[in-house]
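Notebook entry, structure prediction.
Reason for the run: the old model in the group folder had no record of what sequence produced it. Starting over properly, with the input documented here first.
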Amino acid sequence: MKKKTKIFSCVMMFIVVATFLVPTSKPLATSWAYPFVVWEGYVYVVSDEEVTEVGEVIGKVTRYSDMESFPGNFSNAYEKGTKYYSIEGVSTEEAIAIEQSKGEYLKAQREAEYGVKSVFERVFDGPFGIGIILALVVIGVIAIISVYKTKRR
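New structure, fully documented this time:
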């Protein structure tokens, strides 16, 4: 009976901690002010200016969504796989070219550093995050002690 109580306690603590990891409210949609791509941790705002002299492929969109933000080479306007190019004579710290269609490229100006670094970025921030980490440590210690005691018997 004691063993079942320990297992039940561990499962319940895990469920309680897991509920804190799930966001309680999620926006239904995100409204973007302009089309952009993210490359190398920076937001590049896509303009209507066409580019004719493109250099090498420097990256591509790895994740597209017009609803949420994601880490990596993300875009709110271009599908996964859309290629990024350097522009001849222009530093990539200033602008890059985005493949609009075959042979057609638009200029994207670097605006700012992109804020989303990781999917878990905001989960462990601040006092709430410290509580989650402590709860996970406690659950881990209890699980280790429980396993150790059952093996000693």
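Summary: The chain has one domain: 2-22+29-152.
The old model has been moved to the deprecated folder.
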